[in-house]
Specification:
The protein is an alpha/beta fold and about 270 residues long. Strands 1-2-3-4-5-6-7-8 form an eight-stranded parallel beta barrel, surrounded by seven helices. The two termini are about 30 Å apart. The model has no long low-confidence stretch (mean pLDDT about 95). The protein binds 2-phosphoglycolic acid. The site of 2-phosphoglycolic acid (PGA) has 13 residues, from strand 8.
Length: about 270
Amino acid sequence: MHVREFFCLWYNCFMAIKGKKYIVGNWKMNPQTKDEAKSIARSLKKIAATSKKVEVIVCPPHVYLQTVAGALGDAPVALGVQNLSEEEKGSFTGETSALMARDFGVKYAIIGHSERRKMGETSALVAKKVAQALTQKITPIICIGEAERDTHGAFLAELKQQFTESLATVSKEQLKSIIVAYEPVWAIGKSEKEAMQPHQIHEMTIFIRKIAGEKYGQENAATFPILYGGSVGGSTGPVILNEGNVNGLLIGRQSLTEEFGTIVTYASTI
Ligand code: PGA
């Protein structure tokens, strides 16, 4: 390994441990009423008021954006959406454009979540959505993750292909304006015990930095945060933040519960 590569690797690990943490709540198609959405947002407001060095991001369904924004008031919580259109504007029934989201005050967009890929979203489409987000200065949280693991390493090739194709529209200069979320599909929606082990997550962050280095040059491979997602809860979240070499977490079901607050509070202490 060259001295420069070694330094980059060391720097990545250092930043993952010491740098700013991103804690993202992906509410998916929950909760079922706007009153519940308001109540979750109010609890989040209290927790966020005391958090430091943490970028707390909440991604509710579009219909709750107004309610959530109102309940959060001036709390240091950023709004995100769970999807965006790949088109700029026009006759696209049911879609929301990056420009509309930006105009509302949305700062982040989850793009290419595995649940959307399952509905037919390809990496090529993800790349177009990423381009729309970047044009409107919305930070895309680009999700990648293998469907399953095999013993021959085919999942690594799958991940590399997803990374390369989903970031096809991202230039070297734009790397600092994106976030990559590593979410192995097999670890999503399971019990907390089945979340990926921190040492495995650590290995995967090194792999992602390596493929980023091949595409953009090793010196640029550390310019974007890597988050982990998949069955994270109040007890696994802190361990993954400590030992997983990640810059944050993308949390699904537990972002609707008090465990999200536990994780945000913990992230402020490291
Ligand atoms: P989960 O979802 O935390 O409920 O597993 C994570 C995600 O899908 O982003």
